[in-house]
Each structure stands twice: as C-alpha cells, then as structure tokens.
Design a protein that fits this description.
With 75 residues, the chain is of the alpha+beta class. The chain has two helices and four strands; from the N terminus they run βαβαββ. The chain has a four-stranded mixed sheet with strand order 1-2-4-3, covered by helices on one side. Pfam families: TusA.
Length: 75
C-alpha cells in the first residue's frame, strides 16, 4: 500500500497515537494517505472511530508482529 506520509507512533500509549495522527493529518492534502505504525492495541478501535468521525477513510490495517499498521485516506 502506497502512502504519502508515515507516522511512527510505536511505543506510545493512548491517547498519543490519535494526537499524533491528527497532527500528521493536518500536514497532508485531502486524498493523500497517511500510514500509521502503532504498538498500542487500543489503536485499532481508536483509529477506526477517529477516522470515521473526522470524515477520513481507514483503507487498510495490518498486523506485523507487535506492530499495527493503518492506512488512512484524508477526507
């Protein structure tokens, strides 16, 4: 999956992955894709809910070892 920006939120506990994701989203254009790497298991539900409420689209998510990866398209 191609992304326009990668955010490393590994090792951060809730709510920091969301806070950093929101900040990173402000730095990209509408239609671009942000790739988020997190280790907080709560990020699965948090990022899905945050994306939906913010008008963004969670395109894909994957798990590689203990790293959760998310691809969010800016709305």
């Amino acid at each position: 999956m191609k992304s326009d920006k990668v955010l490393d939120a590994k090792g951060l506990a809730c709510p920091m992955p969301i806070v950093r994701t929101k900040k990173a989203m402000n730095e990209i254009e509408s239609g671009q894709v942000l790739e988020v790497h997190a280790t907080d298991k709560g990020a699965k539900n948090d990022l899905a809910a945050w994306s939906k409420s913010g008008g963004h689209e969670l395109i894909e998510q994957a798990e590689e070892g203990d790293v959760l990866k998310f691809w969010i398209k800016k709305g």
